[in-house]
Every structure is written in structure tokens, then in C-alpha cells.
Amino acid sequence: LGLRHSHVAELEEELPKTVFQKLSDLDYKRIDTLLEETNPFLDCENRYERQDEIIDLKDSGYKIELEALYWMGPDYMNNWIY
After folding, report:
1. Contacts of 44 (CB under 8 A, 6+ apart)
2. Which of the four pLDDT bands, split at 50, 70 and 90, describes residue 9?
3. In terms of DSSP H, where are the helices of 1-82?
4. What is the reported pLDDT for 32?
5. Most exposed: 27, 33, 35, 37, by fewest CB within 10 Å?
């Protein structure tokens, strides 16, 4: 959908604290896999931008489900669909 962790961080003050979930051990394993040098996810022009987003996610220690964005109103999600 084009929603990045940096976008979520910008909304932190507007969303209720209950929608933020602590990253699980499995989440950390997936993040580490994404950050591996041989991962095709990083084989692109914007490699460092992707890497920074994933590192920020890992450093923050939290995630949200997309459904949490319904707190922003029904039209909010439409802005992210391309």
C-alpha cells in the first residue's frame, strides 16, 4: 500500500496507544532477513532508503496493523492506495 514506518511514526500522536504493538521475536527475525546483504529486497536503486526504513522499524520496537489506520477516518486509507 505504500505505507512506511516513517509515515506511522508521523501519526504517533494521532493514533491511540492501544494500536501500537511490540515487535515479536518473529518480527525481529524477519527484519534481520530483510537486512541481509543477499536479500533481493535490497537489490534496487533505493536500497539505502529501504534499509533505513527497516532499521527505523527495528529501532522503534513497535508496529501497527493497517486496520489501526481506520482511527484516521474512512477516507484516510484511500490516500495510500495507488
Report:
1. 50
2. confident
3. 5-10, 25-34, 47-60
4. 97
5. 37
The SS3 assignment for 63 reads: strand
Instruction: Please tell me what DSSP assigns to residue 38.
Output: T
20-58 b/e (C-beta count within 10 Å ≥ 16 → b): beeeeeebeeeeeebeeeeeeebeeeeeeebeebbeebb
Residue count of the chain, please give it.
82
pLDDT at 1 over 60: no
Measured over the CA atoms of residue 25, residue 30, residue 31 and residue 36, the dihedral's sign is positive
- Spatial distance between the Cα atoms of 5 and 3, rounded to a whole number of angstroms: 7
Q: Which amino acid makes up residue 17?
A: K
Distance CA 82, CA 79 (A): 8
Q: In this predicted structure, what is the pLDDT of residue 2?
A: 59
